[in-house]
Design brief:
heterodimer; A: 323 residues; mainly alpha; globular; B: 326 residues; two-stranded antiparallel sheet; 2 strands; 74% helix; 2% strand
């Protein structure tokens, strides 16, 4: 108890000299930020991740053409090799593909789609998983049994298989005429439904622990409704592990989307993600046009590696056993 | 023990039933199968006759029961694109997938265990750090990128290995094998590495972690105190106790190796079940999709069941907790 009182007194005694608002200072002084500053590799990985996000956001500013707009593509410019090679031509930094699409621009736009699908997929999976986890843990009994059985069954199947299947079912429902935006929605749905289990299990575990604590009993006594207790009081205590899972799942979701697109069940050629670009480029590998596949591949691998490194660090930093 | 086995078996059948319902309902989502068979100008009466002959006018539960009974006898209907019974197609392609998955698993286990043991014993050596970096790359590189990279290196640039197919195969009964010809073996190398790399990193990390844990235990300290050679301690005592969870995980992973073979088979155009499934998804060939789903879940459920039962036999400590399975 006294531990909690002392810093508060100390804080009130010291005038707020540091610039910036309170939460910023708290973030900078936190253990998490300290451990972040200690790990140079993580700082690089985080910077690379942010760079990828910025590249995706400002894709239309940075690219020399809109690779999705057929009017801007010229067949005259097809199959130009990267700028630094003998046959390189001026605006096309990383060369062009079969249709005269600038590889660099295509990567920026593809990156945008990969990140959108990944982030939305993780958000959907997180929402589903947290909801079911909270319900299973808080309600317990038969509801808990049912949700966790479904989770068990789903966990025995790899996510990529489930995602492929959902994609196949969607195709059979809507026929093969899905437009690009609906395909994107189906991909998000497939990823969301494949990755919810881990969140549900983690949240359920934390809820089971927190449920028996006094503050929950107090909240129940003053008559708060169950959803409020779950969302405002129990959930914040489970946020650490959820954050770790979300980071690592973002990498997995991007891999899954890329794999589906590579297999031909994802984004169409007219609106390619990184995976689609790699599938297209793969066809020209034997013709010696390596740059069409190599640069999207490097972008994808770099993005995933950076996110994984941040996720690994976050897992260790938030794990009290490793401090 | 019997009660435990029974309960697990019932659970396994429940899973298969659930997957069966999903597989069956795909047919119902996919529109009228009669349209897939007859031509556009077929009169309505003839359509009704076809519908009746296929049993599509029966109540849904009757249709489901029929589907399930047929599936239990490995009758999955006729493929829309190949116009052949799906079971024939599956049997034709199963050897390719199983050979690939087995090779990849063996590769992953041998190298995973070797690298894991080494990086646990020489934790700070340069090679151990290299292994750690390799394992991070193995997790971060999507399978298909690894495949493309290998193809570019060994097929396009160096021309040492074939970039697609199984090479020459030898037929033994209904089984076709590529293990007996040189070109078959050469064709197997890159797909096996591609498929096995992820499992290898997984096993390596697991062996390293388990080994580090075991090396801290009292009986290892006691073995040291007894004056046993380092080799006897490391390989006779520590490694042996590490291998139980490793073999379990590798066994459980065999199912996902078969599932991940979808990607590898597509990259290398390997004529297995996975490639057939991907093509079926693209062409909305529901009988193949449903049959593949059922086959894979059968393999999964069987492996899980066998591993669960073996585990309790191997590790007596688990038997006391059997009454309350997690």
């Amino acid at each position: 108890m006294s531990d909690a009182v002392v810093p508060r007194q100390a804080e009130s005694a010291v005038p707020r000299a540091a610039p910036g608002s309170g939460w910023l200072r708290r973030a900078i002084e936190s253990d998490l930020f300290y451990s972040f500053r200690r790990s140079r590799l993580t700082m690089v990985a985080a910077a690379v991740t942010i760079l990828f996000f910025l590249l995706a956001i400002f894709a239309s500013v940075l690219s020399v053409q809109n690779p999705f707009d057929p009017a801007q593509l010229q067949l005259m410019n097809s199959r130009i090799s990267p700028l630094w090679t003998a046959d390189g031509q001026s605006p096309f930094l990383l060369g062009t593909d079969e249709q005269g699409r600038d590889v660099f621009s295509a990567i920026l736009y593809g990156l945008r789609i990969s990140l959108v699908v990944g982030v939305l997929g993780v958000l959907l999976a997180g929402t589903l998983g947290i909801t079911f986890g909270l319900i299973a843990g808080y309600v317990g009994g038969a509801v808990d049994g049912l949700i966790m059985r479904i989770a068990d069954v789903q966990l025995t199947f790899p996510a990529i298989l489930i995602a492929l299947l959902i994609n196949g079912v969607a195709k059979s429902v809507f026929g093969n005429r899905l437009d690009a935006m609906s395909t994107l929605a189906v991909l998000v749905l497939a990823i969301g439904l494949s990755f919810w289990v881990q969140y549900a299990r983690t949240v359920r575990g934390s809820v089971m622990v927190e449920k028996s604590k006094d503050y929950v009993a107090a909240a129940q006594l003053i008559g708060l409704p169950a959803p409020v207790i779950m969302l405002r009081h129990v959930l914040p205590n489970a946020m650490g592990p959820i954050l770790v899972i979300a980071t690592i799942n973002l990498a997995l979701a991007i891999i899954t989307e890329a794999t589906l697109s590579f297999l031909g069940s994802g984004m169409p050629d007219t609106m390619p993600s990184l995976g689609t670009l790699i599938r297209i480029g793969n066809n020209y590998l034997f013709a010696g046009e390596w740059w069409i596949v190599a640069f999207p591949g490097i972008a994808l691998a770099g993005l995933i590696l950076a996110i994984n490194l941040v996720g690994d660090w976050l897992r260790d930093a938030l794990n009290p056993k490793l401090r | 023990m019997l009660a435990f086995t029974l309960r697990r078996a019932i659970q396994a059948i429940g899973v298969l039933l659930a997957v069966g319902i999903i597989a069956f309902s795909m047919f119902r989502f996919a529109g009228d199968p009669v349209n897939q068979i007859v031509s556009i100008d077929t009169p309505a009466a003839e359509r009704e006759a076809v519908r009746k002959s296929l049993g599509l006018d029966d109540p849904v539960p009757v249709q489901f029961a029929r589907y399930f009974i047929n599936a239990a006898q490995f009758k999955f209907g006729v493929s829309y694109q190949f116009r052949q019974p799906v079971s024939n197609l599956l049997i034709e392609r199963m050897p390719a997938t199983l050979e690939l998955a087995t090779c990849a698993t063996i590769l992953a286990m041998v190298f995973g265990i070797l690298m894991g043991v080494y990086s646990a014993l020489r934790r700070d050596s340069f090679l151990a750090k290299v292994f750690q970096a390799v394992s991070l790359i193995g997790i971060s590189l999507p399978t298909f990128l690894i495949g493309i990279l290998l193809i570019y290196l060994f097929a396009v640039t160096l021309g040492w290995l074939p970039s697609f197919g199984r090479g020459e195969v030898v037929r033994i009964g209904w089984w076709t094998t590529g293990l007996l010809t040189i070109s078959g073996l050469k064709a197997l190398i890159m797909p096996s590495i591609t498929l096995g790399l992820f499992q290898m990193t997984l096993i390596m990390r697991l062996v390293r972690a388990e080994m580090l844990e075991v090396l801290r235990t009292d009986y290892i300290r006691f073995a040291r105190a007894r004056g046993l050679t380092t080799r006897a301690i490391h390989f006779g005592h520590a490694l042996k106790n590490t291998l139980v969870p490793v073999i379990t995980v590798a066994g459980l992973q065999f199912g996902s190796v078969i599932a991940f073979a979808i990607i590898t088979e597509t990259v290398f155009q390997w004529p297995g079940m996975g490639l057939m499934f991907v093509q079926a998804v693209q062409n909305v060939d529901i009988p193949i999709m449903a049959a593949y789903l059922l086959m894979v879940s059968l393999i999964f459920v069987t492996i899980n069941l066998v591993v669960d039962i073996l585990y309790t036999i191997v590790d007596p400590r688990l038997r006391s907790t059997i009454s309350r399975p997690a």
